[in-house]
Every structure is written in structure tokens, then in C-alpha cells.
Amino acid sequence: MINKMNKLKLGALVLLQCWACAEAPKDNTPWVNLTDGTLNGWNQKGGKAIYKVNEGAIVGSTIHDTPNSFLTTNKMYDDFILELDYKVDSTMNSGIQIRSNSFPNYRDGRVHGYQIEIDPSKRAWSAGIYDEARRGWLVNLDNNPAAQKAFKQNDWNHYRIEAIGDTIKTWINGVPAAHLIDDKTASGFIALQVHGIGKEKKEGTEIAWKNIKILTDSLSKYSKKMPLAPVVTKNQLTINEEKNGWKMLWDGKSTLGWRGAQLDNFPDKGWEIKDGVLTVLSSGGEESAAGGDIVTTDLYGDFELQVDFKLTEGANSGIKYYVDTDLNKGSGSSIGLEYQILDDERHPDAKLGSQEGSRTVASLYDLIQADINKPINPIGEWNTAHIISKDNHVEHWLNGTKVLEYERKSEAYRKLVSESKYAKWPNFGEGDRGHILLQDHGDRVSFKNIKIKPIF
Predict the structure, then answer these.
(1) Which of 21, 82, 184, 392 is the most buried (most CB within 10 A)?
(2) DSSP for 362-428?
(3) At 254, is the secondary structure helix, strand, or coil?
């Protein structure tokens, strides 16, 4: 009888085990581990926080008097699905960098790029998306209480991160957290951040990461549906920009706010608006011979301006500011200070100018050459022009790097003007206000994300 009972118990146990196996099917996803129990395949950038391996997990510890530290993969990744677990001290802030980079000419090598936030504070924005050392917050969790509540304090948390094409999706402990459509950066390393701390915080606080695995093949097969509506950054202000007084200068779909430089309305030819991109069409390289330049209907004094631009081979164009459309009513382009847009390798203008190199990309056209070590992306890729003008101090930036500066109305500036093609225009570039202009130089050049911050 006892033997029969034992057999029944054993049979029940076997059935229970089989049922459990059926409930938890094996994960056949072809994951690749990013750790092997050592720090092989990783290197440290930025600060001097301490990274070590403990019981299979990578553990980062804070130290005083050092900037943000990043343990980065040696390998670069573009499209991928990443999963990992982490446990963070409740007093820390951290993050997972994806598609991030470090270039000597960008803020002395500072790590920058997308960061999947780790935030144990009351704010609870863990798995939100931050743009480290660039644009700041892209997706926070203010409107996602379910994801905010999903974070487990003083315990292991699980992230799933999908970066496929221009779309980034995140989950925290299985809860959808962030959905972003943004094409700023397509490739870069993955990194584990230990945030810098002030003297008021305890040194040696820790964050640990484990089970770090990645998938780079057959992504459409394994990608998960995201129920959250996406945050789209194309022709939209970011969270930080909106808070800091920026406004869109072009809405991405209409001609509102723009007109022909020598017209009352927008040109009826020569310009194209398609898929959120404003393009001046090719007409054989002749200046203002097709649709002509376009200008803002409003005038601007002190300002910050950002414009994404994309060149075609051999193309020439420009972004002009403090433009007075009454100065030149004849043929050719309207007159103003110009941030040059040019294919330096192929267009002959790169070798011309009153000052050496003063007609190369990002230069102050015909007056001041941009830094020769400027970071320019290849033809066919997007670049970001950034112009700052405040109290007559002007700076040109290209892809996050300052490439020149000058003092408008200074004696040095006036001397450069006297030696240039602008010498015939009295008080050239010295107006207190003017239009912003996009130039038609007869070559195909595209623009998007045109935004301005008036400075009062």
C-alpha cells in the first residue's frame, strides 16, 4: 500500500514537472552574450569610476571628483535588440548608452548619444530616453504611470531595448516604457554609465548589470509590438527645447512663415516639400535662377538657430542671417551674413574667397574660414548647423562642435568686409534685425528641423 502511494506521489510529481515545463517554453532566440565573466570586449571612457566583475555581474562604483564614466563595448552596433538586468543603489542615477560615440572633435571626446535612463528617484523615469551631451530629454515617463510603477527599488530590474532603423522602443520589467522615432544617430557603442557625484554624496555606491545579451539578426522576427504612441522628433521641438524658449521656424509640411526673398509669396517652383523635408531643386548650379532664395516673414535680432541640412554631390547653398531683402533687387542672391553649405571636395568655391578657405562648409562666407578639423558627415547624410548671435558675438557650430566665432561690427570684422565681395555694401551685416534665408544656388540641398530661439 505504501509502495503504491509512493508511486502515485512520484507520478503526480512528474506530471507537475511536465506541466511546469509546458508553462515555461525554452527561449530559442539566438542571443549573443556581451559578457563572459570578465571585462573583455569593453573599455572605459569619460570618468574614473571603478568597474569590476562580481559573481557574473558587472559592478560600477562611484568616486568623487570625476565626470560621468562609461564602460563601452569595443564593438559598434546599429540595429539590435538588447536585454539586461540591473540593480541600482536608491541614491544613484545611471543609464544604458546605445548608438553612442566618442570623437576627439566633439567636446574633447565626451561620450554622447541615446541613453536609456536608470532613475530610482521619486521622479521614476527609468527606461525613458535621454540624449546624453546633446539634446537632453527625448521621452520622459510623465505620462506613463504604469512604467513609473514598474521599477523595483533595491531589486533587479529587467530592460528590453529595441533599436531598429529610426525607432527605439523600451520596456521595464515587461511594461512598455518609451517609443521614439528619431534619426539623429544610426550606429554606435553600448555603454554602462556610472554617474559623477558631488562631495555631498556617498562614494562607493554601486550599480550592477547582468545577463547582458544582444540580438542583431532576424530582428523583424523577434521585435515586439509597442502599444505606446511614438514620440516623433522630426520637425518637432524636444522636451528641453520647448522648455527653453525654442520654436519651430518651419512646420515640416507647409510654406507658413516663409516667402521668396524677392516675392510676396512662396516661390511656385524650384522648391519641394515632401516627407517632412524642404528641398531646393537642382537647376544647373546657377544662383537664384529657379525658385530663388526663401526668407522668413519675421525679422530676428539676437537668436540661436539650428538647421539640419543634407548635401548632394558638388552642391552649394547657404543659410544667411541679418538679411535685408531690399539691398539686392537684381539678379543673384539676397545679401546677408552666410553660413556656407558646400561640398568642399567637389565644388570649386572651396578654393576661392577673399580669405583662404572662407567659402568652405560652415565658414562665414568669404570672410572667415571654419576650423579645418570640423566634423562633417559624408554627402547624402544629415548635418546640423547651429548659429548663435548674441550682443554681436556670433558663433558657427557644425554637428555639435564650434568651428568659428567673431564679433559683428568690430574693427576686425569691418576690415574683413572691406577685403571681401561685400565691400560695396555699406554697413554690411551690421543690421540689428534681419531675415533668416535659405539659399537657392541651383543645386539640390535639403533642410529639416529648422528651429530658432529668439534671445531677448
Answers:
(1) 82
(2) TSBTTTBPPPTT---PPTTSEEEEEEEEETTEEEEEETTEEEEEEETTSHHHHHHHHTSTTTTSTTT
(3) coil
Q: For residue 396, which of 319, 332, 336 has the smallest C-alpha distance?
A: 319
Separation of first and last alpha carbons in the chain: 94
Residues forming beta bridges with residue 333, ordered by sequence position: none
3-state secondary structure of 348: helix
**Binning pLDDT at 50, 70 and 90, where does residue 24 land?**
low
Q: Phi then psi for 351, rounded to 5 degrees?
A: -100, 5
Distance CA 320, CA 297 (A): 14
Report, in angstroms and rounded to the nearest whole number, the Rg of the chain calculated over CA atoms. 27
Determine how many CB atoms are found less than 10 A away from the CB of residue 14. 10
3 state DSSP class of 358: coil
Q: What would the pLDDT profile of 159-200 be if each residue is shown by its tens digit?
A: 999 999 999 999 999 999 999 999 999 999 999 999 988 877
C-alpha cell at 323: 538679411
* Single-letter amino acid code for the residue at 426: P
Tell me the average pLDDT across 136-158.
Answer: 97
Q: How does the average pLDDT of the chain come out, rounded?
A: 93
Question: Which residues contact residue 112 at a Cβ distance below 8 angstroms, ignoring those fewer than 6 apart?
Answer: 100, 101, 102, 106, 131, 132, 133, 134, 400
Which strands form 258-260's sheet, in the order they lie side by side? 258-260, 294-296, 435-438, 316-324, 335-342
Tally of CB atoms within 10 A around 12: 10
What is the spatial distance between Cα 411 and Cα 214, in angstroms, rounded to a whole number? 58
- Residue type at position 163: A
Q: Residue 401 — pLDDT band, cuts 50, 70, 90?
A: very high
- Model pTM score: 0.90
**Cα 272 versus chain centre, distance:** 25
Pull the grid cell for residue 95: 543609464
Cell numbers linked to 207: 550599480
How many CA atoms, within 13 angstroms, populate the side-chain half-sphere of residue 448?
21
Residue 243 phi, psi dihedral angles, 5° rounding: -70, -30
Q: pLDDT for 47-69, tens place per residue?
A: 999 999 999 999 999 999 999 99
DSSP helix/strand/coil, 11: helix
User: Quick count: other Cβ atoms within 10 Å of Cβ 222?
Assistant: 13
**What's the half-sphere exposure (Cβ side, CA atoms, 13 Å) at 257?**
17
